[in-house]
Each structure stands twice: as C-alpha cells, then as structure tokens.
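Researcher: Please translate sequence to structure tokens.
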Amino acid sequence: MPSPRHDALIRLFSNRPQLAVEVLRDLLGLDLPATPLIRLEECTFNTRPSDDIEADLVLVLGPPQAPAHAIIVEIQQDKSKAPRQLARYAAALWLILRCDVTVLIVCPDRGVAAHYAVPIDSGLTGYRLQARVLGPDGIPAIIDPQEAAANLALSAMAVMVHGRDRKVVEAFATALTALRDEHAPKYYEYAYSMSAPEVRHLLEEIMTSTDWPVYSPFAREHYGRGLDEGKAEGKAEGKAEGKAEEAARMLLLVLGARGFDVPDDIRAQISACADLARLESWTTRAVTVQTLQDLFDLSDG
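Model: Translation complete:
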C-alpha cells in the first residue's frame, strides 16, 4: 500500500514535471532532448486485453504528434518490485510511443537505491535496462536559502533525506517565508509528508519561530481554506472554496497568456476572492479587456 512519502513524491513530480528532467540532466548526467514541452501521460500500459501494468508516473517530452523522449518515474521505498517489471514498463511504453524511454527510480533508502542501480537483465537477448536511480546520496543537502527558493521541490527532498541537519530545514523554511506565494504551502506539505517523525518535529519547531502560519498538521489541513480559519467549515464549503481557488488560478493563467504583467496587489486580490461567480465573470472578461483596470471596472460596475 502506498505510503504518505510515496504519494508526496508522486505529487511533487506530477505537479512540476520539469523536476524529473532536472534530476536526470543535472543530478544524474543524462543527455535529454532540449524541449519546453513536457506533459503527463497515461500511466497504464495495456499490453494485451487481459493485462494492464501501471507505473507511478509517466512524462513525455516533445509534442504529442512526435514524442522525443519518455520518462517513467517510480518511487521505491523497498525491494518488493521485481526489477524485470521496470524493464517491462520501458518496453511497453516504447511500443506505444515509439521513442526512447528512461526509467527514473527515486529511492529514499540507500540500500534500495543500490538494489535498483544494477543493470536489469530482461531475459530478452540484447535488452538490458539501466535505470537511473536517485538515492539519498544523489540529493544535495541544500543549506543556502536562495538555492532552496530557486528549487523548492529539490529542497523538499533534501529535507526528506538530510532533515536531521538543522541547516537544511532552516534553509527550506527561510525559502518558504521569503516566497510566500500560493504554491509554498504545498511544498511544506510535501516535505512534512516525506520526512521521518523527528524531522517533522524539527520542521514544526522552526516554522513556529516564523510568522508563516503553515507549521502544524492542523494548519496544513486547512491552509487551502484560509490559514487564519480556526476550524473546518465542512466538506461542502471546502469543495466550493477549492473551486474558487481553481477559478482564480485559471484567471491568472488567462491574464498571463494575454501578456498582462499582473502586479502583486491585483494577484493577491484575485487569489483571495472566494466568490466563484465573480471569478468566472472576471475570467470571461479577461479574454477581451484591454487593461487590468477594465477587468475590474466592468465586472464591478
């Protein structure tokens, strides 16, 4: 059964697909096609009608019509998965996409990483898979807050494997408090879920010394509904506010696509709006308005 650490690592990579490319290219030295096009792909490979195999995450580089490279991301915390299964994943995906395939295995445990780093003999003559393995030794201990802010995902993984070093947690916490954007709470959640209990305690201890409110399990549970709320308002309200958050994100995407440079105060106004109808109205108008002031004047008038 997947653990919180497993699920957090999958969310970390799926929410920022570029992370897999950076790990393979910058940490593991793999030469990958240079393309800004990276998309999530279906994770289930159907090799015959009665046999589906499913990887943790599949990313594809390049346009859908001509994929340039595929990456299978697997999270392995023990040695339970047969290495040949990983070779099977790669072969099945190659048959579907007809492009080169790399298997990236993320192993928080050093012994597990060594186990999967050995070349995999598939049993098929001439086909041996060399998976790329990211183990604890491959994840840098980030103690520079600026470096942590530049790559929160890698910094969260640094907390996972090096979190007993207080400087690593302090750099991560400083980066979160400096950024204060809408994504920062997610990275705290990832780091907290992936870490051992003693590292979690250290995270909470350090975060309580800041004025950033997401430092406890209760606060993490409720940050998506407003960090200053004292308790949950029920599933219905949570779902409605989740829709408002998504609508605000979509509005900001539309404005960005149209070339608007959205100031911090307006971005904050949009992100804080809980009125779904108003957000949808703003989004509709955002397609045609000529200035940001027109957007609010028209919708509020």
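Researcher: Any highlights?
Model: Strands lie at 38-41, 44-48, 51-54, 57-61, 69-75, 100-106, 120-121, 128-129, 132-134.
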